[in-house]
Amino acid sequence: MDLDTAKQELEEFIPHVRNISDSSIKKMAGRDLVRFKQFKKQGIAVKFGRFSQKENTQIRKNVEEFLSITGIDSAEKLLFTSRYPEDKETINRLKAEHLFCEKLSEGIPRPWRLIYYRARKMFDPNNYKGRYTQEEIEKLKKYHALHGNDWKKISEMMSRSNLSVAMKYSEIKSAINYGPWSKEEIQKLMNAVEEVIRKRMETEDANSRSSSEKPDRDVLINREILCQKLPWTEIEAKVGTRYWRQCKQKWTTILTNKMNKGQQLYRGTKGLQAKINLIKRLYEMGVEDANEVNWEELSKTIGDVPRTYVQAKFYKLKVSCVPFWQKKTFSEIIDYLFEEKLPELEETL
Asked: What's a Gene Ontology MF term here (predicted)?
């Protein structure tokens, strides 16, 4: 299949495909297009975003079945073959003979590349090693000075996952402030958000019209762009004194205050009522996984707030109220909140 045809056919399933590199499109045409068409016949849409518990279970099943078929003795060898140079040739031959790509993605309506990255994250024994020691932090700084953003190389040298070393370096690369936000920092954050949004919209304008047709106007920004899908690591770099997650949390707070004209939505009796409404609505939805929740719709149970605000409030609610929540499924957490916490909140109110 030629490149233009591949782009055209993939665009039905991945609207942003024309922003993807040509080499990636060629791989997707080979690995994904037939699968996407099969899912379409079954009425199943291609998914993006966080993986659901059901999808994680399917990945585990696919990996275990492939190990059973091939006799490869661990998921680490299968997914991190370069760590085992003495077995590399044999493992790669078995992958090719038994169609590893097809087997790994079986039953999961997502691009193969995303499934592969998710599997590597799930089965990487270096991914869950706890806090970094001061010695590790110094090593990370040293390795980054030598190898730049080659996270794969650095992760191998530190026996940590690619994601772990990249995120940790993002956290330590500058003097991070953990105290209250100053007025100057807040202004830097707002300027940074405005800059990345304007840049994005100017790019979209340039793609949709010639420069001579572009009107000289203020940008009207929709709620979705303000509330999500912002490049937080880029914003972090522009702010300079805060970690990206702090920037994201602070921006959510600023948006919430502006959207509600400074009213306190989550304190006193209003806060109690918001928690009650949140638990009831989640229970009524009857969903099995957090990824199936329409957080935008759910945010209306609290007020005119961004979806990230209501997600943060739900997270605090489950952590503070549900014992051993890490070992419970999403539906078990909701059932516990409804049966145990809701009566207590209603009585307090």
From this structure: chromatin binding
Q: Residue 310 in contact with residue 296, Cβ under 8 Å?
A: no
| Closest of 106, 20, 78, 58 to residue 28, by C-alpha | 20
Task: Check: CB of residue 232 under 8 Å from CB of residue 247.
Answer: yes
- DSSP readout, 28-62? HHHHTHHHHHHHHHTT-----SSPPHHHHHHHHHH
Q: Which two tokens stand for residue 175?
A: 């003097």
Q: Are 303 and 309 in contact (CB under 8 A)?
A: no
Write down the domain spans for the chain. Answer: 3-123, 134-173, 190-207+216-260, 268-348
Distance between CA atoms of residues 123 and 127, nearest Å: 8
Q: What DSSP assignment string belongs to 100-163?
A: HHHHHTTT--S-HHHHHHHHHHHH-GGG---SPPHHHHHHHHHHHHHHTT-HHHHHHHHTS-HH
Q: What is the pLDDT of residues 292-324, one digit of tens each?
A: 777 777 777 776 777 777 888 888 889 889 888
CA angle 306, 309, 315 (to 5 degrees): 145
The separation between CA 150 and the C-alpha centre of its own chain, rounded to angstroms, equals 21
Under CATH, which number does the domain 134-173 receive? Answer: 1.10.10
The string over 297-320, giving b where at least 16 C-beta atoms fall within 10 Å of a residue's C-beta and e elsewhere, is: ebbebbbbbbbbbbebbbeebbee
The answer to whether 108 and 55 are in contact (CB under 8 A) is yes
Cβ neighbours, 10 Å, residue 164? 20
User: What is the number of alpha carbons within 13 Å of residue 296 lying toward its C-beta?
Assistant: 6
pLDDT digits (tens, 9 = 90+) for 99-118: 999 999 999 999 888 899 88
CA distance 92 to 104: 14
128's tokens: 């869950």
Tell me: pLDDT of 236 over 80: yes
